[in-house]
């Protein structure tokens, strides 16, 4: 992947510094592949070591997606439970890099926020969404359970809502996400940046050490049960590759996607010939 898949920009404000992290490839809905995740984890560790940093804004490249999920092409190529365990552990480590970052992280969500993307958003401290954004955990429809930081959802949105989101695998809009408590606020597409600025200003008004202590304390409050749930989820994801169901469903998804791309290419070619 190119360096453009992960960019970091800093803004120095009167109260401190903010970092804007943009990840992904818009053409692939900013899917999380192993290389991108490794670079993201390393970057979050570097950012956390900056004493002047007060907040991080995390967003996807382009307007089509925050993160459309983990890289299905890479998952479809997994052939053994051990490979599955390695991949999903990296997804967890990506989310954990956000959860354990010492400064608050705000997710600015535009477009699709699915699967691993929703787990990454759930790992953030605040979530702001454009009204046009869409959410979902469709993993069961691809033959694997929703795992790792999906374990945060029952505490975040309630057990009943988490059952609905995880078992049905349906997508839902930003208004529903706000009603569930999944996102903190929703704004029109053109107003999302202004909403983000108000939250950044509010964070910057807090004491820098107090903010770090508060975030660390909230992570302690979550308790060890979350970590145990994540560990169990990793084993469940790996087990999904024992029967071959995951490989079959993801292979079918990839084949359908390629067929749609080929059809669009043929249609464009025909239109050019007719022009």
Topology, pairings included?
Layout: E1 6-13, E2 16-23, H1 34-48, E3 53-60, E4 65-67, H2 72-76, H3 81-99, E5 105-109, E6 112-114, H4 116-123, E7 126-130, E8 134-136, H5 153-157, H6 159-168, E9 171-173, H7 174-180, E10 185-187, H8 192-204, H9 208-222, H10 224-239, H11 245-274
Helix pairs in contact: 1-3, 3-4, 3-10
Helix segment tally = 11
Trace the largest sheet across and list its strands. Answer: 1-2-3-5-7-10
Question: CATH topology, which one?
Answer: 2-enoyl-CoA Hydratase, Chain A, domain 1
Mean pLDDT, as a whole number? 93
Q: In CATH, what is the homologous superfamily?
A: 2-enoyl-CoA Hydratase, Chain A, domain 1
**Helical fraction:** 40-55%
Strand residues, percent: 15-25%
- The end-to-end distance, rounded to whole angstroms, is 36 Å
Rg (CA only): 19 Å
Give start-end ranges of low-pLDDT stretches.
none
């Amino acid at each position: 992947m190119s360096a453009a898949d992960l960019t970091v920009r800093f803004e120095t404000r009167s109260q401190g510094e903010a970092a804007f992290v943009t990840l992904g490839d818009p053409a692939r809905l900013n899917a999380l592949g192993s290389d991108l995740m490794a670079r993201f984890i390393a970057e979050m560790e570097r950012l956390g070591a900056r004493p002047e940093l007060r907040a991080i804004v995390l967003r996807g490249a382009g307007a089509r997606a925050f993160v459309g999920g983990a890289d299905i092409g890479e998952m479809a190529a997994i052939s053994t439970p051990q490979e599955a365990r390695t991949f999903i552990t990296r997804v967890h480590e990506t989310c954990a890099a956000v959860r354990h970052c010492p400064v608050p992280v705000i997710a600015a969500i535009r477009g699709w926020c699915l699967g691993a993307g929703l787990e990454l958003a759930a790992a953030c401290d605040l979530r702001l969404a454009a009204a046009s954004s869409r959410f979902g955990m469709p993993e069961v429809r691809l033959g694997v359970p929703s795992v790792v930081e999906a374990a945060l959802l029952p505490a975040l949105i309630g057990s009943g809502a988490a059952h609905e989101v995880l078992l049905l695998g349906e997508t839902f809009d930003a208004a529903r996400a706000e009603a569930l408590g999944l996102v903190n606020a929703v704004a029109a597409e053109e107003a999302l940046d202004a909403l983000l600025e108000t939250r950044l200003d509010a964070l910057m008004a807090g004491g820098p050490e107090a903010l770090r202590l508060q975030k660390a304390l909230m992570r302690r409050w979550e308790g060890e049960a979350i970590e145990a749930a994540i560990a169990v989820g990793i084993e469940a994801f790996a087990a999904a590759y024992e029967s071959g169901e995951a490989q079959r469903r993801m292979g079918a998804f990839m084949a359908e996607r390629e067929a749609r791309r080929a059809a669009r290419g043929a249609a464009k070619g025909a239109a050019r010939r007719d022009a």
